[in-house]
Task: inverse folding
């Protein structure tokens, strides 16, 4: 399951302690027999209920599509883990997917004694110190677990969720929260609530030792992640007393090795009580009807007194502490200051100070460091928790720069803030950009659910009014307020984490225990699940696009216009979409990077950034392989200003030789860093396997060509970009006629487009025998991908591929997940995909993946190969997969400018209509025999290329040779430079 670790909040929900704005006031209302609270002028129309048993319910109705986002939030996370059993909350999160005494089991009466025995064995195991006796006890745990698994139904929860149309079963654990999330069709509310009510009634912790091994794998992945290690060190130093720094979400290795099911059950009984939980839903429903159903569903829950984590106050940081971290990735640094509790004026001031320093466009760091290329990259921002915040400055040094030099540059921006050397207009612009961000985000059910869940976790939702009014409160802040605050807050009271490239001498891993694969009983179904899945629902009819009606087509000069009107708000999105990219012109991506550093005859590069930030607009020039896009977004009232400025920039940008010299240096440095990134290496190997040495991944300029490119070459591309064929795409408040009139005035076009150079093509590889492509990397785990090119696109296969992917390799109920992780405990992450090309003249490819401990590699490869050879059959899993695929089409809604991009994508595949129409019709008659035949013809018995990144110290080259002929690739072969 996902878990929060080190993410800066993407939504502005920092409350303030002053009086609430008049426009955002709490009110109380009654409807449908229930009383609730709401905030006036709330764009989400959220209702906050408290049921008789103390359960909080937050409902945000939004009928734009027939789906509902759900969260079950618990105000308990790693902060509330016992000091002697860290990682416990995270364990529990995993186990809430295992079922109850009514589902997930074939025979509870026979299963229970075995599970009780496992509980007791773990307690004995924990108290035993003799290594040999521990091994003996673990063998008994393994044996008894195998016996118990004969009565369990693995992942029956996921099968039910797929069967009712769920699209995103997941959960996460963090410091003060554990949150379970789902996305399901609105016609399945009754089924869904029946399942959730049962899920939290009496969870049974079955199939524990294999799930425990998945958590081991998750821990090992974090030990392979330099960013995770650096963040953990920063938190530990900034919070020497608080559990933010003293307890990690996953827990210590020692505690992972000695879990207690008894303690996990105590934790559940202590914190999973209604007065400490919230049901959050956002989507298509009638709140009066839904609250009655929720009340009935969870009425069995009984309120209990809850004592949450009460930390001792941290002593002030009074000095500077430096911590050195080592690992294979590129060097970087973080500077951390301890912040304030949420919902305080200080936290708001700190958040605003962060925006003045770094907002992506016009902050001090943006202008003085990133825009002037004084570092490879730098940023700043606040991570807000309940009891404290953490203000983080970060940077990656450029070529020839030390970490200490990069650190000095970051701290120099703090000094500028303290001296007031910034324009006060930044505060007004920050408020405008925050309001625009909220206007865009609150239309999304996922954002609504996340935002209100966050409010519940931090303060039971009591400050929702202040969160909505935060931009208005921020607007009252003066420059003097910020300067005074900065001089009080930013002192020699911080922690520096220097991440060096090197060997981590403290590297550890959780050792592999001996696990016998458990039975999954994938084709069985409990009586409870049968009742849920067979309960009738009112069908939702699919809504497909009619490209002739849903898109308005026009002309501006010789350019085609594709437009969809925004009838909901004043936001516009405009794009110039060019039918060319890096495959046509190698220099084009570099021109796009160069543009951000260029001035014009009227404005400096810094002034251009400030102008866009001041009018709350954004623009970007993105170059893909086949398509390049200039995109402009903002409020319609600023349309002419924003578009005219973009036009001016492209037409009048001037060469800047010093900026180009710095850009070349940064590109070369980033290339060095890429070679230290295991994910990039694995992607490169996969491309090498698919296309050979000349492949899309390493296509581009050589290092010598980077050094030789000139400012004149890049500026020429920018000045002449509009002369190439492009479509004009508009989503905004104006209709086609009004928009055409506006765009014709500001976007000048030639009388004829310049033909683009022919695009680079690549040759697909079709080896007759298995191949192994290997790269050595210092890591605990082994990353393995299977890949095979599999023939040209055929629209007749769309339905089979969609259903095969759902059944075979997608989600917790898939064949791959159930076998590799659930039964054999060989990986935390494993999946497979038969990938569709994005153009009709490209090939499909089959890809499978396992990320596992190096000492499990051989077993993991054997397990995946078995699945690629023989497709296991499960009628119940197949039915759930098919229902899920149909549900996704029936409830999916393509809206806004996504309509236009759906049309363009379908065009590339040869469709003149919504391709989902064909997909839906193809899916309906399919049965398991069709999928089995597809597997037999396209997957089984075929040669594959194994792409492997691992440490030579931890795997055997002789073992690799058993998979196929081995080619060890060096990094120059992989990256092309």
Result:
């Amino acid at each position: 399951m996902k878990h929060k670790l080190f993410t800066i909040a993407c939504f502005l929900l920092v409350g303030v302690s002053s009086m609430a704005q008049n426009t955002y006031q709490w009110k109380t209302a009654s409807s449908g027999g229930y009383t609730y609270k709401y905030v006036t002028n709330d764009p989400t129309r959220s209702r906050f209920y408290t049921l008789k048993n103390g359960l909080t319910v937050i409902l945000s109705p939004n009928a734009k599509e027939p789906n509902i986002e759900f969260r079950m939030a618990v105000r308990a996370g790693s902060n509330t883990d016992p000091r002697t059993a860290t990682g416990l909350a995270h364990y529990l999160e995993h186990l809430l997917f295992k079922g109850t005494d009514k589902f997930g089991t074939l025979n509870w009466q026979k299963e229970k004694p075995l599970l009780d025995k496992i509980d007791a064995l773990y307690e004995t195991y924990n108290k035993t110190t003799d290594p040999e006796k521990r091994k003996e006890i673990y063998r008994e745990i393994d044996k008894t677990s195998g016996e118990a698994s004969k009565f369990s139904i693995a992942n029956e929860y996921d099968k039910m969720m797929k069967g009712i149309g769920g699209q995103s079963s997941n959960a996460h654990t963090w410091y003060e929260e554990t949150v379970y999330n789902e996305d399901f069709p609105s016609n399945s509310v009754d089924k869904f609530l029946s399942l959730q009510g049962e899920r939290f009634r009496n969870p049974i912790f079955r199939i524990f030792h294999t799930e425990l091994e998945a958590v081991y794998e998750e821990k090992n992945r974090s030990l392979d992640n330099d960013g995770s290690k650096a963040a953990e060190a920063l938190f530990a130093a900034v919070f020497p007393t608080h559990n933010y720094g003293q307890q990690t979400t996953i827990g210590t290795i020692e505690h992972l090795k000695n879990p207690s099911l008894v303690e996990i059950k105590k934790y559940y009984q202590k914190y999973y009580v209604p007065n400490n939980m919230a049901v959050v839903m956002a989507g298509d429903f009638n709140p009066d009807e839904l609250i009655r159903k929720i009340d009935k569903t969870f009425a069995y829950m009984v309120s209990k007194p809850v004592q949450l984590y009460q930390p001792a106050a941290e002593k002030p940081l009074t000095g500077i502490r430096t911590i050195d971290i080592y690992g294979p990735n590129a060097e970087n640094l973080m500077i951390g200051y301890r912040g304030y509790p949420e919902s305080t004026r200080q936290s708001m001031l700190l958040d605003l100070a962060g925006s003045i320093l770094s907002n992506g466009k016009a902050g001090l760091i943006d202008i003085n460091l990133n825009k002037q290329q004084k570092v490879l990259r730098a940023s700043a921002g606040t991570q807000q928790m309940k009891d404290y915040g953490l203000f983080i400055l970060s940077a990656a040094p450029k070529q020839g720069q030390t970490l200490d030099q990069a650190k000095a540059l970051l701290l120099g921006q703090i000094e500028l803030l303290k001296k007031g050397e910034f324009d006060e207009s930044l505060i007004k612009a920050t408020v405008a950009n925050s309001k625009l961000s909220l206007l865009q985000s609150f239309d999304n059910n996922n954002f609504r659910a996340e935002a209100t869940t966050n409010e519940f976790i931090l303060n039971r939702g009591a400050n929702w009014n202040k969160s909505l009014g935060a931009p208005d409160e921020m607007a009252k802040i003066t420059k003097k307020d910020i300067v005074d605050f900065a001089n009080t807050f930013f002192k020699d009271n911080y922690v520096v984490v220097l991440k060096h490239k090197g060997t981590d001498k403290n590297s550890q891993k959780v050792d592999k225990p001996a696990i016998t694969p458990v039975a999954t009983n994938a084709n069985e179904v409990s009586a409870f699940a049968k009742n849920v899945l067979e309960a009738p629902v009112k069908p939702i009819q699919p809504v497909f696009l009619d490209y002739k009606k849903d898109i308005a087509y026009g002309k501006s000069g010789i350019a085609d216009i594709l437009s969809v009107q925004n009838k909901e708000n004043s936001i516009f999105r405009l794009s110039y979409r060019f039918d060319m990219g890096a495959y046509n012109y190698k220099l084009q991506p570099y021109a796009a990077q160069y543009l951000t550093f260029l001035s014009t005859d009227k404005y400096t590069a810094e002034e251009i950034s400030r102008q866009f930030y001041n009018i709350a607009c954004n623009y970007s020039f993105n170059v893909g392989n086949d398509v390049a896009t200039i995109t402009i977004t903002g409020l319609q009232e600023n349309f002419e200003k924003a578009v005219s400025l973009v036009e001016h920039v492209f037409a009048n940008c001037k060469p800047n030789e010093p900026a180009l010299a710095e850009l070349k240096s940064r590109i070369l440095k980033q290339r060095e860093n890429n070679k230290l990134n295991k994910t990039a290496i694995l992607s490169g190997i996969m491309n090498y396997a698919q296309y050979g040495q000349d492949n899309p991944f390493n296509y581009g300029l050589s290092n010598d060509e980077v050094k030789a490119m000139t400012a004149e070459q890049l500026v020429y591309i920018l000045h002449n970009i509009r002369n190439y064929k492009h479509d004009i795409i508009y989503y905004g408040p104006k209709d086609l006629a009004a928009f055409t009139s506006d765009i014709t005035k500001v976007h000048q076009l030639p009388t004829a487009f310049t033909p683009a150079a022919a695009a680079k093509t690549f040759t697909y590889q079709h080896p007759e025998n298995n191949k192994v492509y290997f790269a050595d990397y210092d890591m605990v785990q082994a990353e393995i991908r299977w890949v095979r090119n599999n023939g040209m696109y055929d629209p007749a296969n769309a339905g089979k591929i969609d259903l095969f992917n759902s059944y075979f390799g997608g989600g917790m109920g898939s064949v791959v997940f159930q076998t590799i992780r659930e039964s054999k405990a060989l990986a935390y992450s494993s999946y497979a995909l038969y990938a569709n090309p994005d153009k009709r003249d490209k090939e499909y490819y089959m890809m499978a993946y396992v990320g596992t401990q190096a000492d499990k590699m051989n077993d993991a490869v054997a397990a995946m190969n078995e699945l690629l050879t023989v497709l296991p059959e499960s009628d119940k899993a197949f039915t759930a997969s098919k229902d899920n695929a149909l549900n996704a089409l029936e409830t999916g809604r393509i809206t806004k400018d996504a309509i236009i991009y759906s049309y363009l994508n379908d065009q590339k595949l040869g469709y003149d209509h919504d391709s989902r129409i064909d997909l839906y019709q193809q899916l309906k008659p399919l049965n398991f025999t069709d999928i089995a035949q597809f597997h037999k013809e396209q997957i089984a018995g075929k040669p594959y290329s194994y792409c492997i990144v691992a440490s030579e110290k931890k795997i055997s080259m002789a073992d690799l040779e058993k998979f196929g002929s081995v080619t060890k690739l060096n990094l120059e072969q992989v990256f092309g430079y």
User: Anything to note?
Assistant: The radius of gyration is 29 Å. The chain has three domains: 32-311+510-534, 547-746, 771-975. The longest helix spans residues 108-127. The longest strand covers residues 781-792.
